Amino acid sequence: MDGIKISTTQNVELEYEPAGIGLRILSTILDMIFMLVYIVLVVYVVGVIGELKKAEYGEPDYLAITLVIIALLPVILYHFLSETFMNGQSFGKKILGIKVVKLDGTQPGIGSYALRSLLRIIDIHLFDGFVALISVALTDKSQRLGDMAAGTTVIKLGSKITLRDTILHKQQPDYTILFNQVALLNDKDIDTIKDILAYSISNNRPDVLTKLAVKVKTKMGVSSNLRDDEFLKAVIMDYSHYQFEK
């Protein structure tokens, strides 16, 4: 399966492996299990409350029935809520190491997640997943209808990396900023640098690091003898402390 090339806001092209049909089916099954467990727990808890009320008043507890309906709303909105608040992942996707991304390199927004969730009705529910299977199998970027409408797809993430690997946020006492020119960067720049740094480390792509380092140095108007990864980590750390000190 060909890789999916995504151009970031720094114009650095990253290539990801699309999540295959098998992974997407498995993530859907896992999500269904999570939703089923949640439904059983809700129905059981509210059912116990209802039985207690019925025993006490001798009639069904319509409040309990109403609570069941309200409590089940997260199931109806499961994919939209989880992808929105878990950065493109449901619990099933997170377990399998796959996530939703925009093909133009920007961060998916509420509208993108809402479209994907809404079109699940056609992709998956109405035709038992047949439409989704066909479209993912036949499209170049492994997209179901919801993905095509939202401009998204689902990719496999690289190997997990730790905070120690990327030095993303950790503050250090008495830290001295190396590059005061980080003031020229913004949060979006730093988020992009973090993403590309993580990608390059997990996929062993020093060429991508070099390309990014050149662009960042140009934007900041600096030069450095540090290795590309060390320079980018220093920029992230500098920016973190710069923001903290403002």
Overview of the structural elements:
With 246 residues, the protein is mainly α. It is built from 13 helices and four strands. The chain folds into two domains: 4-156, no CATH class; 163-245, no CATH class. It has helices spanning 21-57, 62-71, 73-76, 78-85, 91-96, 110-118, 120-125, 130-138, 145-150, 163-166, 187-203, 206-220, 228-245; strands at residues 4-7, 13-16, 98-102, 152-156. It has a two-stranded antiparallel sheet. Strands 3-4 form a two-stranded antiparallel sheet.
What keyword list fits this structure?
13 helices; 61% helix; two-stranded antiparallel sheet; mainly alpha; 246 residues
Give a brief outline of the structure.
The protein is 61% helix and 7% strand.
Dominant shape? globular
For the largest sheet, list the strands in their spatial order.
Answer: 1-2
Number of helices: 13
Helix content: 55-70%
The average pLDDT value, as a whole number, equals 83
Radius of gyration: 23 Å
What is the oligomer described by this structure?
Answer: single chain
Helix/strand layout:
Blueprint lengths: L3 E4 L5 E4 L4 H37 L4 H10 L1 H4 L1 H8 L5 H6 L1 E5 L7 H9 L1 H6 L4 H9 L6 H6 L1 E5 L6 H4 L20 H17 L2 H15 L7 H18 L1
Antiparallel strand pairs: 1-2, 3-4
Helix pairs in contact: 1-2, 4-6, 11-12, 11-13, 12-13
